[in-house]
Each structure stands twice: as C-alpha cells, then as structure tokens.
Amino acid sequence: MTIVQSVSRRNFLVGSAAALGGLSLGFHLPLPGKALAADAAPEINAWVVVKPDETVVIRIARSEMGQGTLTGLAQLVAEELDCDWARVTTEYPTPGENLARSRVWGNFSTGGSRGIRESHDYVRQGGAAARQMLIAAAAADWGVPAGECTTDKGTITHAASGRSTTYGKVADAAGRMTPPAEVTLKDPKDWTIAGQPLPRLDTADKLTGKQIYGTDLQLDGMLNAAIKACPVFGGKVQSFDAPAVADMPGVRKVVQVGETALAVVADTWWRAKTALDALPIVWDEGPNTGVTSATIAAMLEEGLDADEAFIGHQRGNAREALAGAARMVSAVYGFPYQNHATMEPMNATALYTPEKCEVWVPTQNGEASLAAAAEASGLPVNQCEVYKIHLGGGFGRRGMQDYVTQVVHIAKEFPGTPVKLIWSREEDMLQGRYHPVTQGRLTGALDADGNLTALHMRISGQSILAAVMPQRMQDGMDPLIFQGLTVDSPEGHLGYTIPNLLIDHAMRNPPVPPGFWRGVNLNQNAIYLECFLDELAHAAGQDPLAFRRKLMANHPKHLAVLNAVAERIGWDEPAPEGRHRGLAQIMGFGSYVAAAAEVSVTDGRLRIHRIVAATDPGHAVNPAQIERQVEGSFVYGLSACLYGECTVNGGRIEQENFDTYEVMRMADMPAVETIVMPSGGFWGGVGEPTIAVAAPAVLNAIFAATGKRIRQLPLKNHSLV
Which residue in 139, 377, 393, 405 has the most C-beta neighbors within 10 A? Predict the structure, then answer.
C-alpha cells in the first residue's frame, strides 16, 4: 500500500538545536520573559530538531496526562524519520508558536481519545518530510541522486559509493532545503518503531522525581495563591473582611476574582490557605439553594414521560410495535453526577506585565489556555504565551479554563511577579464540571419466539454541549447525548439491528455545571443498553451472548470483540465454583470494545475476580500502552460503578474529599486481560472506550450471581444480600 500525502501546507523543515539559541522548550520550561519569538528560528522543523549528539527532539502539541500520547506520537514520527529510537525525546511547542506559524502543529486540544487518531496523519508527514530533506542534503553534498540513498537509525547511506553520514551532520543543510511537495508514508505492516510495545519516554523521569508538574513549578520571587468560590452553584461574593487577615504571616493581599471567588496571596501556599480559611466571607448564595439530588431526580423523572424529545436514532415504528408486543419488558436506569477527582488539583502560574502575560499550566488545550490568558489579561494574543506542563490527571477537567482565567486575574494585582494558584482538594471537588446526571427508561418488545422486535430508549438528563459548547448544538439537540447509539457515526454507532427502534432525549438541565468526563455519555449509554439487553435475554429465556449474536449479524466488528472476550473468559464452559459472568460491548471514540467479567458475591460482598477486555482501534501504535490504558480505564470505570457519586444539597456538592468520594483501591482491583485486535482501515481511540463496558459487564455478572438488577449507580448504595 502506497500512501502519498501532500505536505505543501505545512512547515516541515529540519534544523540543528543550535538555532534554538540554547533555549529548551517543554520539560525544562523557559524562564519568564524568555519565550521563543515566533520568527526566532524559522528554519527549525515543526516536528524534528536534531542535536549535535544525534539526539532527536520530536515536538508534539498534544498534552501528556498519563495516557502515553507523547510516546505514541513520537513513535509515528520516528517511524517515518527512520531515526534511532534510543536517541528520541520529546518537548512541547507553545500555542503562541503554533498560531504564529499558521497552526503547523494542528490542534492542541487533547481529549475524546483523539491524541493519536486525529494527529497520526500529519505527524507522520512531518517525519517523512524531514527524512527526505535529510537525504536531499546528504545527496547534494555527495553529488549523487537522492533516490540512491537509504536511511536506517539516523544514518544515511549511499551504497554505490560506500559513503554514509548521520542526521546530526547534515541537519543544518537540510534546514535550508525546500520541503517536499509530497511524501510517501509507510504501510503499517512495515512498521518497526510504530506498532511496537516500546517503553514510554516519560517513565524514567516520573520514577526519579525529575518530572515537573504544575504544583512543582518554582520561579524566582514567586508568590502563592489559594482561592475559594461560592460553594452554591450560581452564588457570588456578597462581602468579606480583608483587614481581618491582613496581618497574618506571609499574607500579601486579598483579591476578589470576578463576582464569585476570593483569593489570598501569600509567600507560601499553606499560609495563603490558612488565611483564606480565616477570612470572614458572606456569600450571596443566589437562586439555587433549594436544589437537591431529590429535586434533580424529580426533574429527570418528568422527562422520562415528556411528549417532546430529540430523536437520535429511529428505525421502523417502535411505538406501534411495542403496543402490539407479545411481551413487553421495561426498566429505568440512572447515572449520578461524577467528579473528575484528578490526583493533582487545578493549578496554574502566571506572570503579568502591561506588555506580556505568560502562563505555565497543566492543560488539555494549550490554545484554549492561551485564549483565556489573553482575555483575562486584556492583552492581544500575540503578547501572551502559555507553556504546557505534564498533567497530574485530566479526564476532561483540564479542558476547561476557569483556573487559567483566575490565575491571570490574580497575577494582574502583582505586575512583574509570578503567582502560582493551587486549588485545595475541597475547592477542586466543589467547583468541578461534573459528569452529567441522566436517567434512562428502556422498553423492549419480544415476540412469541423471544425475538427482540422493538426497543424504545428514552434518555432524560443533562446536555454537556448546551453548557460548554452551545455552538455545536444541532437545532437545539445535543448529538453527543447519543454516543454509541447512532446510525452510522464513525465515532460510535449502534452494534445491533433492531427492526423497530427509537432512541430519544428529553433535555433537562439542572444548575449543576456539567463537563466532559472521561468516557462522556458513552458510559451511561453502555450501562443502559447492555444491562437492559441482558434483561431482555433473561426474559426471553436465552443466553445473553446468543441473544446478542442474533442482533449483530450486520455488525461484524462489534461481534468480533464480543466473541473475543467470550472465548477468552470461557463463556461456553462452566465458571469456577461460586463465580458468575457478565458481558457487554459497545463502540465509542472510533473503536470497538467489549468486556467479560467474572465475579462472586459472598454474604453480600462483591469480589470482581477477572475482567477480559477486547479493543479494536483500527491501528495499534503501542500495544503495551493500549494494555495500560485499558487497565487504567477499568480503574476509572469501576470506581464510578462501585463508589462514584456526587450528591447535591442546598445547591452545592456534598462530597468534598476522598473520604466521601471513594475510588478503587488495590484490593478491589480485578485481574485485567487485554486483547488488542486492530483490524486496520481506521483510527480509533483507546483511553476512553473501555471505561464504558466495565460497569455493565460487572452489573450483568452480579445479576447472574444474585438475581438482583442494579439499575441506579453507584453500587455502594445497594445490598447484594
């Protein structure tokens, strides 16, 4: 397979590290006021910098938050570059550079499991273009045709004359070459670096403590800020008594941040927090003090019966078929608010002067952070810059920019002095952007032979897009609600053919702010659909796997991952004594995924012994990292299933720390077996899809063990006795 790509629209040039003037971007962080000017090194390749010691620095825009994106993208560049992987490292370009250079690095946003699947094409072009330019430089020096030269592990060879050289020796000359108009990309079957289970590039620094996170950052003369916003959604500051804490140790100033928050700035963060806790504040709690989990549930229950709803998937006439069913089965499911609860709370550091605003931040979207910094500072975008730092967890939360806006507003009170803002754990929990709350009523029709003839799935609940991206709404409808349930979306379409089908959404938006939470709406959609299909199978007296297979003849990729987990877990064989099994499958974020769980329940105590997961992401750039991502996704998905719940009382979240918002512990964690089965032809995501099948596989296994259906999460609220 020959893949020819045009690269004329991008600045794929090669250069040596010397042109950077000794400035290192990314991990070592530029000093305040020393950001790389947009035109300081126009000859430097957007993707590749070759140093005199033959180190290859690959510059990648996507954020690293533990998912391995930097390593995977570097593998793709290195594959086309034919460099020595042992000499590869990475660094971040800045969003300011990206804008100044016509967004050569593409999209800085890292979310929706898109880091590799949206970048693979142009990062490979970058590596391939750099390789051609390096060859051209060597060939010109030798006076031979470039087509007679070959490359391997950073060495260029002309076999006919017996000459060879290294990338580092010709990098400066290559940087003066004209970029090729087209490049030929390798067929994935020929990959030797991409597609391999290589160790991550950032592991060693994490193990040694060398890795810098936002909370670690230290700048000369830096002050520290702690912040507190009104804990009631929609509330604001009414009054406060700054003189009451003015003489406390280290305190420099109390700063009101917008209408809703107050910050204390001090010489250390702990002193700032101590003073903030002592600061007398009167909140105007606003109109939402009567909002509770019960009132929200009532709002959603009303939506289940509403006459009007947005239709996401329709086939045949589900209502008519249900009315004439030989047997009808119905159930209502619910999914609560969930917090991102990243291990590293929100933080950012800003340095403001009337001429420039710089921000150092762990962010999932560097360009959005740059826009937020410009807006908050009142300066033009080209007088602002953002330096990305590795994230101590993101899960969607660090795609929002509220903490960036806050730190710039605070830093404006201290021109010329860097200020680091760190949210307390309590602030992080109370001021989240939560996984939206929904309920789902599913009604299915079975004929006399136990065949599913109709299904109506009504989702009632919150829209993320209505709150954070209204421009993406479609005539008032949030298409994201229907993740994994649509007709033919490459992001995630339904894997069952049902003669009469209606999937609709009654939008109900409580005042609790929603946000993108790892897995987004696929999480509850998989629970609702896969648990209810299990209910239908048992109502029809059929094996849950066989029942699904009858509906999946037209969906071979969905069926392939389901068959893979069923075979691996031994579905057709008796489970070990006292153990029971459950299945689930879905498509999301461009990938096909399935899970099979094996559990036991003894005296009401659940133990998840084993989970088998299968994923078909089209292409597997790093199979070992895919396995780690799947394992991590089950930690996240099972934490939500077993424990995760944010309740609302008096218009505010009740869970303020990990003592009341529990997560999986080592003793809870099952053995995870991952089947990576890329079928080629498409690029799917990895970090989020398998979260969605964790809970339904376990819930279906719990039913097999106990005969109890758990339809409202989390499991901690239910007895299994």
Answer: 377
**Do the strands 652-653 and 15-16 form a parallel or antiparallel pair, or are they unpaired?**
unpaired
pLDDT tens by residue, 518-571:
999 999 999 999 999 999 999 999 999 999 999 999 999 999 999 999 999 999
| Model confidence at 31: pLDDT above 50 | no
Q: Is the pLDDT of residue 609 over 60?
A: yes
Neighbours of 219 (CB within 10 A): 17
**In one letter, which amino acid is 602?**
T
The answer to whether residues 626 and 677 touch, using CB atoms and an 8 Å cutoff, is no
CA angle centred on 648, ends 642 and 649, rounded to 5°: 135
What tokens does 474 get? 């479609």
DSSP state, 180? P
State the burial class of residue 148 (Cβ atoms within 10 Å of its Cβ: 0-12, 13-18, 19+): middle
Integer Cα distance of 349 and 31 in angstroms:
12
pTM of the predicted protein model: 0.93
Give the 3-state secondary structure percentages of the chain, helix then strand then coil, rounded to 5. Answer: 30, 25, 45
Contacts 24+ apart (CB under 8 A), 287-290: 287/234, 288/232, 288/233, 288/234, 288/235, 288/511, 288/651, 289/232, 289/650, 289/651, 290/650, 290/651
Spatial separation of the C-alpha atoms in residues 65 and 214, rounded to whole Å: 12
- Which tens digits make up the pLDDT trace of 273-326? 999 999 999 999 999 999 999 999 999 999 999 999 999 999 999 999 999 999
